[in-house]
Amino acid sequence: MKKIKEIKKLKNDGFPLKLIKKRINTISTEIKETFTVDEILSITNITNFFYEELLANNLIDKPKNLEGNIVHPTAIIKLIISYKTLVELGVTYETLKRHNEYKKLSEAEAYFLMEHLADARKNKSKINEFAIVEAFENIRQHSRMVFFND
What we know:
This protein has three domains: 1-31, no CATH class; 36-91, no CATH class; 102-150, no CATH class. The chain is 69% helix and 7% strand. The protein is built from eight helices and three strands. A hairpin with a 2-residue loop joins strand 2 (64-66) and strand 3. Helix 1 (2-12) runs antiparallel to helix 2 (17-31). It starts with a helix and ends with a helix.
């Protein structure tokens, strides 16, 4: 029922069907705010050894104790799946650890994205944050690929 309401809302907001499908396919994990380690292992289909390697290499933060449950925030799911994909494709932990060197760049991009959102709020009474983030990400991706292809 929640998915149907979400689909109708996104359609009324003018989203193309392709984006609605992408959004709906991620809703089930976004409804929950936190996941236990066991849930994460199951959802991401990783081994406990791989999870421990991510922790040991400081690629993911340690889980927090929330009301007696050891949990991670929802966002860690995509992060773990991305690390898993990269390792399966042959990227070493040494290279993955270098992502920490680019945290300042990520912080700068986050501030720049917030600037986009604030600017849109000043100029429109109702904004579509999802569409703004998606467009921002597309522009950043394009900029990286232009640099990569030069």
